[in-house]
Amino acid sequence: MDISDTSSNPASHSSTGTNAPGVLLAAKSINKDFAEKKILENISLTIEEGQIVTLIGPNGAGKTTLVRIALGLLQPDSGSIYHRPALRIGYMPQRVHVEPTLPLTVNRFLQLANRQDTALLSSTLEDLKISHLEGRQLTDISGGELQRVLLARALLRKPELLILDEPAQGVDLAGQAELYQLISEISDRHRCGVLMISHDLHLVMSSTDEVICLNHHICCHGKPEHVTNDPAYLNLFGANASQNLAVYTHHHDHEHGIGGSVKEHDHD
Amino acid sequence: MIDSMMLLFTTNFVLYALVAGISLALVAGPLGSFIVWRRMSYFGDTLAHSALLGIALGLLTDSNPQLSIILSCLVFAFLLTLLDRRPSISTDTLLGILAHSSLALGIVVLALADSVRVDLEAYLFGALLTIGNADLIWVLVVVSLVAIVLSVFWNDFVSITVHAEIAEIEGANVNRLNLIMVLLIALTIAVSMKIVGVLLITSLLIIPPAAARSMASTPEQMAVRASIIGCISVVLGLISAFYFDVPVGPSIVVVATLIFLVFYFYPNVLKTRN
After folding, report:
1. pLDDT tens, N- to C-terminus, chain A (268 residues)
2. A91 and B210: CB-CB below 8 Å?
């Protein structure tokens, strides 16, 4: 497979075709501009059952925009999004701001997702080790606790696909590893696909099947251990980001300028 | 004292006022809570002010005043939601312009239409004690409608208020729910005009929820307690209006404000120790 071809379909090695039964979500040639600035350029990806796909990239690379398009919250300028019919998505946004005038316990917040199934609610709280937070106000819990509560809300929909926008933000380092481990276990147990945004590839390496390195276009993609040694990844994140890993190289057809713009050059 | 009180509450017009005021306060609790949570109080003000323009136009065209108020509130509500989506200037500036221009225009039109004698003060500050049979029926019909719609969509309304995007992913039709919410506010404002008047309507919607905030740990608790505070304000407002011989609408708002101040400065005043 020619990894340097940015228009290929990164997350589906098996060329399963868009409507194969295992495919939960397929994005095809997505383009999106904001104020005449190209945010996403020719992005294609697929997520299958039980597969964890991680989006990494610098700030402003278009990760959240891509996720919002994948969710159907935002329309792409061109390209298409396929959702498996009746797909249940659990979504964990990057930021949840609760108005201080709105009293809201963790329990009530979670009931917004699923009011009937109280057994599921308490088992989910137990799985995420947040049962003790149930009666607390959403505005009173720590950042790490809030992330778990948001994950619980996403899980209460019994999702076939989890879409997580920086699930580990505001969580301390030890907690981050634990959270990613948890997400991986959830994906295994429920055979649900996961699309998540992360800043630190090393923390998600063990629990991710496919990494897509995004900077307005797909710079490189593949198994995490491949991506961390990809010159395009090193260019974006600096050599320190993977200094502990063996060097693996392949040809790449462009470099990035300071603003993230692509400087094309010929293959040698 | 007790005797005169009994007399007060068995008098027909007082009874009408009481029923209208209490039923309005019951829906104003939950609906006003949404206005507080969603920071829509200026929006409510603008709608209320535009209602005066509706009255003026209704008088000019010789149509049913209650109907013209409701129609103009609905039309304005619809226009405001459309304008809200194209923010070429900031929303609060836009609302400010609309609120005061429609109020001014309404007063000017009322003054020009001198074929009819209009009690401007009644529209601005309410005339609860002049409520008649027809008015009461309007209030009861609209209030029941608002209450039914609120209870049917309650969970969805709370969900889109907490986080619109999660709600949308979970299947809520956010745009439609927002429109329904705005129409409910418009309807409630339209029928409460006679009760507290154009200038004080928003206060009846936002003061009881604000007072209830410190006593609530869920949205439902806040909504129910706001309703209770609203009812207490209506009853005490009516009584004090009689005993101090002051206008009813402002008197209700003053009572609500006093209750708000008590809970604002002593949030634990009702908490029992166990």
Report:
1. 333 344 444 444 444 444 677 899 999 999 999 888 899 999 999 999 999 999 988 888 899 999 999 999 999 999 999 999 989 999 999 878 889 999 999 999 999 987 778 899 999 999 888 999 999 999 999 888 999 999 999 999 999 999 999 998 878 887 888 888 889 998 998 889 999 998 777 777 777 889 998 999 998 888 887 887 788 887 777 655 544 443 333 445 565 655 555 555 544 4
2. no
Which residues are paired to A31 by β-bridges? A78
**What are the two backbone dihedrals, phi and then psi, of residue A32, each rounded to the nearest 5 degrees?**
-150, 130
Residue B35 vs residues A9, A239, B23, B178: alpha-carbon distances, Å: 47, 52, 18, 12
Give the pTM. Answer: 0.84
DSSP A133-187: GTTSBGGGS-HHHHHHHHHHHHHTT--SEEEEESTTTT--HHHHHHHHHHHHHHH
Which chain A residues are Cβ-neighbours of B170 within 8 angstroms? 112-113, 157
Are B234 and B25 in contact by the 8 Å Cβ rule? The answer is yes
Say which residues have a Cβ less than 8 Å from residue A121's Cβ, sequence separation at least 6. Answer: A107, A110, A111, A114, A156
Count chain A–chain B contacts defined by CB atoms under 8 A: 62
DSSP letter at A105 equals: B
- Touching check for A91 and chain B: CB below 8 Å? yes
Please indicate if any CB of chain B lies within 8 Å of the CB of A75: no
Residue A105: both structure tokens together:
């316990």
Q: Do residue B155 and residue A104 have CB atoms under 8 angstroms apart?
A: no
The label of the residue with tokens 């003054």 reads: B111
Cβ of A91 within 8 Å of Cβ of B219? The answer is no
Q: Which residues of A touch B222 (CB under 8 A)?
A: 102-103
A126 — phi, psi (to 5°)? -65, -45
- Is residue B27 within 8 A of residue B143, CB to CB? The reply is yes
B222·A113 Cβ contact <8 A: no
8 Å CB contact between B196 and B32? no
Question: pLDDT tens for residues B123-163?
Answer: 888 888 888 888 899 899 999 999 999 999 999 999 999 99
Residues of A in contact with B39 (CB under 8 A): 99
With tokens 């228009």, the residue in question is A7
Q: Please give the structure tokens belonging to residue B190.
A: 């339209």
Among B166, B170, B218, beta carbon nearest to A108: B218
CA quadruple A251, A256, A262, A265: dihedral positive or negative?
negative
- Closest-CA distance, A233 to chain B, in angstroms, reads 31
Q: Report the complex ipTM.
A: 0.86
